[in-house]
Amino acid sequence: MANKAYQRTYTHLSAITKATVSLDATHVANDELASVDGRLAQVVKTRGGNVTLQVFSGTEGIPTDAEVSFLGAPPSLKVGEQLSGRFFNAYGAPIDGGPEVEGEEREIGGPSVNPYKRRQPSELIPTGIAGIDLNNTLVSGQKIPFFADPDQPYNKVMADVALRADVDKIILGGMGLSNDDYLFFRQQFEAAGALDRIVCFINTTENPPVERLLIPDMALTAAEYFAVDKNEKVLVLLTDMTLYADALSIVSNRMDQIPSKDSMPGSLYSDLAKIYEKAVQLPSGGSITIIAVTTLNDGDITHAIPDNTGYITEGQLFLRADSDSGCVIVDPFRSLSRLKQLVQGKKTREDHSQVMNAGVRLYADAQNAKTKLENGFDLSDYDLRCLDYAKEYAKRLLSIDVNIRIDEMLDTAWELFGKYFSPAETGIKQALVDKYWKGK
């Protein structure tokens, strides 16, 4: 931050809205921080000599002669190894009772990596969750969201992924977390003894919603330090991007901007892309992989937030409750990893893609059998076997509670094929059947 002696101070506001104040000022830069009547604010618009500031905690009670001091710099984060194992708020200040971090101060929200410096992703990131590793394999440098209804245990899945993923660092950006969710993450990481490789930036429901807008940039600035400076594999977990977008909407509406689809600001696509495009595989070996939660409104995938997200990211992971098995599963029909072919059969076993395709096709046949049953049609022997298979497939492979290695997932799938079907019914190549078939 700028030295107090060099701060420019003003005492006349020309306009006040619910979230912003405006004044005439000179030599002010976009994104620069300021103090308005003792409250932290940030420049969001400059036009000629007129400057608009977003006040993070709201403008209620601010008088027109309030003192405004410009701090001379945008939000920043001190980066270094001391970040590991720590919990911070949206401004990068510790909330875990520990000391302030000492290190190099870096501006947050900078540009993403030059495409010339990027390398095609080729490293597998196993999560232990078969619905991901088997059917929608993740690759380092990928950006992918979880789509889930608000009642799904998506934060549990995020914590599981954090603890199981084979990466050097996990950066968690929590936006609008309840205190229970915050304590859940903290207790899970501490109990697993994994704090040394985890950094958390947390905004809870008790904090101003506008502060959520800083969380992704804080998390990604820390991620870039470990990936670029330290050549580490970094996994960034962001939850919940819907609450992030709601905060964008709050600011946009209070600034009297005309809303776009679903009351979202017209800049939503670029606001989301600015975050997701930080995912990268670097030639040096470092990488940033982004997994984010986007909660859905009544399962509406056409809403502006998931709709825009789908254009930016490389697939999606769809959580749903499966009534047949009683499990929460990663839905194989609505989930997709567009980069999985870069590692399947290359960094995993030769039978991976064939087993994946056969498993999902047979599961689809079971859904067709279920429709026939619901409509009163007679079921064939094959239909009945498909239904039994689907229940066990969901429980043993699609459930978010499954935690096994990829080879075990493949072996489990072969076991299920052998239990319910003939080799011909799976459609798998004969050479692979000869090598892996586990039927009688």
Structure description:
There is one protein chain. The chain is of the alpha/beta class and 440 residues long. The chain folds into three domains: 4-70, Elongation Factor Tu (Ef-tu), domain 3 (Beta Barrel), CATH 2.40.30.20; 76-341, Rossmann fold (3-Layer(aba) Sandwich); 352-436, no CATH class. The chain has twelve helices and 19 strands. The chain has helices spanning 130-133, 154-164, 179-191, 215-229, 241-254, 268-276, 304-312, 352-374, 381-398, 406-420, 423-426, 430-436; strands at residues 8-10, 15-16, 20-24, 33-36, 39-47, 50-55, 68-70, 76-79, 87-88, 104-107, 143-148, 169-177, 198-204, 233-239, 280-281, 287-295, 315-322, 327-330, 336-337. Strands 9, 11, 12, 13, 14, 15, 16, 17, 18 and 19 form a ten-stranded mixed β-sheet that branches. Helix 2 packs parallel to helix 3 and helix 6 (268-276) crosses helix 7. It is elongated, with a radius of gyration of 25 Å. The chain starts with 7 loop residues before the first strand and ends with a helix.
